[in-house]
Structures are given as structure tokens and as C-alpha cells.
Write a structure and sequence with these properties.
Glucose-6-phosphate 1-dehydrogenase; Rossmann fold; NADP binding; 2 domains; 6-stranded parallel β-sheet; 9-stranded mixed β-sheet; G6P_DH_AS; globular; 20% strand; alpha/beta; glucose-6-phosphate dehydrogenase activity
Length: 461
């Protein structure tokens, strides 16, 4: 049974409910299952069912019909720490119904609510005696600073055991992110160059064309660095940089990620960070006229270990940029000239968008009688790989919660190290955001963070 807190909210509609439908259509849910939606407002089961079908129609896979929800959706008004609302009785009723049908239910509480509600909801679970044997999914951000992270983590561990806690960073659930391990570890062609001897820099680029008008209140209190850098970008950087684990299970994967994030040097806000704010941002309803919120961040991250020492990890994301992409690029060291001709660049690029893709760019001979050099790119779209049906990041993560696999979830140790590396950017040396034109690649100052060839994505456009 999935108890979906914030069931009428944007996150539940766009991501969680479509993921449930996706798993149901793929036969990856038990024969008997229930989604018990809950929120502060009253609603009927029929209201919730209509919302879920609309969400699936708008955001779900085209080949999954809303009928997968039939008979599986219920709704109850949520609790507070002092008031059980309708939810406590509804959980007991639905649990008993599943048991009567011969199923011993796994109860998962999914907190698709604002971060400010994580603490009150956790305390409410304790106050109403609902913690025994449950699993709880916390969305990002898990804290908004080192201090708030420690406060939340202490509360969560007062109420729950660590193996009951699933902290989502959905980039870890992406098929293409998981392919990083396989590409590197399963192919000597790549594993042999995955180090500072062969890699000049690593670029992890998540530009977005999206505006923030539909969630301006949230965004103006958060910004790009807090929303994306300390979460998705740091986690993907750790996935790229980490040592190959002895086994691909939860304990070994988490340990490898944690050890690598522990090698992240704290950011230097003056030398290694550029913030930006797109022109017109302050005119959006819900944004303060004097807002200094960053809608763009580019950072040069240093990894202090033998494999990566001296190799910059260049992290970039922003709103209203030239195009949307999710790409990891290893820029390879190549001689500047070959046979008296300009040479390069050499790159290994992995798209994390959709099903993912791998591209290898290298020096080749141009067609013709003369020995002239050019570059060629070999591509493999992962959707072309035979066997299996791709699962969305949220579908993959939700499936792992249901089976109790914590491989793709963040841990307190890793998050603590991430906040330590990020902390200087929340201090007095935080740079002021520089303006940039919507539809551009962000402030020109970000170009100083890269090597001589600049940002790969900008270079390709």
C-alpha cells in the first residue's frame, strides 16, 4: 500500500502517479495493491481517481491506460501531530482489506510534500503509532543547509530506523545514470581512460529551457544552486568519479558514492562559482522586485583523490537557457596537432535524458585523397538495445522502494559530505548573480571555468 502524502500536488501528478501506473502496466506491482492519497483538503475517492487519470493522460506513457487505476485508489484527509484526521482509520481499514484478501501489505509513505512538511509529517507518523514496519520516501531537498540537514536527519532517526528511510534523488534512478557503471566497468575501452591521465575535464550539464512562473514562490526561496547543484549535479558527479564497487548492491554502491563525495573539495565561491539570473525574472508574479535568487549556476568542482586530482568537474544548470539537455561529457586529453594538422577534440558523452545515449567523438581521416584530419562521432541510443522495457526514473525508484532495495537512494553520510562541500556557497563570499539573456547559455563569466575548448554543449550549437 502506497500512502501518498500531497496526493493532489504537482509532484504527485507529474511523476508519482504516472510511475505507479507504469509499474502496474508492466506487472511490477503485487496482485493486490492500493494507493491511499492524502492531503489537507477533503476529497472523495472519485475525485482522486479522476485526478490520477488526468495525470496519467497528461504525463504518463502513451501506451498505459487510466484503467490500471480502477479499484485501486482511495483518499482520506491527512493527519497532523495532534489530529489523526481521516488518515489513521483509513490506513487501518485498507491494511485490513489487503490482509483479508491474503496479502500481507508493505506500507510505504511517500512524502510528495514541501520540505517544510517533512518534519511535521514524520512527527505525525510517530504520534499516531504508524511507524512499525513502514518505509518512508523523502523527496529532495533533504535539508536546505548543513544545519537543517542535521536537524531533519536527527528527527528522522528518532522516529525510524535507517533501513526504513528512502531519500530520493531521481537522477540516480535514470536508466542512463545506471549505465555509467556498466559502460565503465564492462568495457576496457572506457575503463582504461577513466582517470586524470586521459581525461582533461568532466562536464556535467543540465540546462533547461523551462521558466519558473508556475512555481515562482518555491523557486525564489530556493534557486538553482540549492535546487540542482547540491542534489542532482553532486550525485551524478559522484557516480562518474567513484571507484568501481566490489558488487552492485545497496551497501557497496552507497559506500562508493559516499567515499567519493567525501573527496569533494569545498567549493571556492570566488574562484570556482558563477551565479546568474535571467533577465525578466524579477517581473514574474511571486518574485521579489529585488530578488537575488540564482536561476543559473556553474561550478568548478575538484575531487581530491589519486584518480581525479587536477581534473575539474564542471557543473552547470539554469533556467531559460538555449536548450534543454542532461549530459555527462568526459573531455579526453589529445595532442594539439597530429601530422601537422589541428587535432581533436576527443570526447565520451552520455546523454541522461530519456532512455539515454552514448556518443564517442574522435579524430578520423577526412574522405578524399589527401591526409586531412576531421572528427567523427559514433552514437548508440540506449532505446535501440534489445530486451526489456525502459522504466522511468520514478518508476525505477518506486519499484526499488517496494522491494526494499536501497541501492539508488542517498544516505546520511553522503548527504553530510555534499552539504560540507556546498556550505561555502551559503556563506559571505557567495557571488552576486549576473544577468543573462533568456535563450542564451547563461552569463559569459561562466566560460572562464572551462578549458580552452569551452562548454561542450554551447560549442555544439
Amino acid at each position: 500500500m502506497l500512502v501518498l502524502h500531497g496526493a493532489r500536488g504537482d509532484l504527485a501528478r507529474r511523476l508519482v502517479l504516472p510511475a505507479v501506473a507504469e509499474l502496474a502496466a508492466a506487472g511490477l506491482l503485487p496482485d493486490r495493491w492500493t494507493v491511499l492519497g492524502t492531503g489537507r483538503r477533503d476529497a472523495s475517492d472519485d475525485d482522486f481517481a479522476e485526478l490520477a487519470r488526468d495525470a496519467l493522460s497528461e504525463f504518463g506513457p502513451e501506451d498505459v491506460d487510466g484503467g490500471v487505476f480502477d479499484g485501486h485508489l482511495h483518499y482520506a484527509r491527512s493527519f497532523t501531530e495532534d489530529d489523526p484526521g481521516e488518515l489513521v482509520d483509513a490506513i487501518a481499514r485498507e491494511t485490513e482489506a489487503l490482509r483479508d484478501g491474503g496479502t500481507e501489505p508493505t506500507v510505504v509513505h511517500y512524502l510528495a510534500v514541501p520540505p517544510s512538511a517533512f518534519g511535521p509529517t514524520t512527527r505525525g507518523l510517530r504520534a499516531h503509532g504508524l511507524t512499525d514496519g513502514i518505509r518512508v520516501v523523502y523527496e529532495k531537498p533533504y535539508g536546505t543547509s548543513s544545519e537543517s540537514f542535521e536537524e531533519l536527519d536527527a528527527l528522522v532517526h528518532e522516529v525510524l530506523d535507517e533501513d526504513q528511510v528512502f531519500r530520493i534523488d531521481h537522477f540516480l534512478g535514470k536508466e542512463a545514470t545506471q549505465n555509467l557503471h556498466v559502460l565503465r566497468s564492462g568495457n576496457e575501452l572506457f575503463s582504461g581512460v577513466w582517470n586524470a591521465r586521459h581525461v582533461a575535464e568532466v562536464q556535467i550539464d543540465l540546462p533547461e529551457t523551462l521558466d519558473v512562473a508556475d512555481r515562482a514562490d518555491f523557486y525564489d526561496a530556493t534557486g538553482a544552486a540549492l535546487d540542482m547543484l547540491v542534489t542532482h549535479l553532486f550525485q551524478v558527479a559522484a557516480e562518474v568519479a567513484m571507484e568501481p564497487p566490489a558488487r552492485f548492491d545497496a551497501a557497496h554502491l552507497a559506500e562508493a558514492r559516499e567515499r567519493m563525495i567525501g573527496c569533494f573539495r569545498p567549493l571556492d565561491p570566488v574562484e570556482d562559482v558563477v551565479l546568474g539570473q535571467f533577465e525578466g525574472y524579477r517581473g514574474i508574479d511571486g518574485v521579489a522586485d529585488d530578488s537575488s535568487t540564482d536561476t543559473f549556476v556553474a561550478a568548478r568542482l575538484w575531487v581530491d583523490n589519486d584518480r581525479w586530482r587536477g581534473v575539474p568537474f564542471l557543473l552547470r544548470t539554469g533556467k531559460r537557457m538555449a536548450r534543454s539537455a542532461q549530459q555527462v561529457t568526459l573531455v579526453l586529453r589529445t595532442p594539439e596537432q597530429l601530422f601537422g594538422e589541428p587535432n581533436g577534440p576527443g570526447r565520451i558523452a552520455l546523454s541522461l535524458a530519456g532512455d539515454g545515449a552514448i556518443e564517442v567523438t574522435t579524430t578520423v581521416k577526412r574522405p578524399g585523397p589527401d591526409l586531412r584530419l576531421g572528427t567523427g562521432t559514433a552514437s548508440l541510443a540506449l532505446e535501440d538495445v534489445d530486451g526489456g522495457r525502459p522504466v522511468s526514473a520514478y518508476g525505477s525508484l518506486l519499484h526499488d522502494v517496494l522491494v526494499g532495495d536501497r541501492s539508488l537512494f542517498t544516505t546520511p553520510e553522503g548527504l553530510r559530505a555534499a552539504w560540507r562541500a556546498f556550505a561555502p556557497l551559503q556563506g559571505p563570499d557567495r557571488p552576486a548573480p549576473e544577468p543573462y539573456r533568456p535563450g542564451s547559455w547563461g552569463p559569459a563569466a561562466a566560460d572562464r571555468l572551462t578549458g580552452p575548448d569551452g562548454w561542450v554543449l554551447g560549442d555544439q550549437d
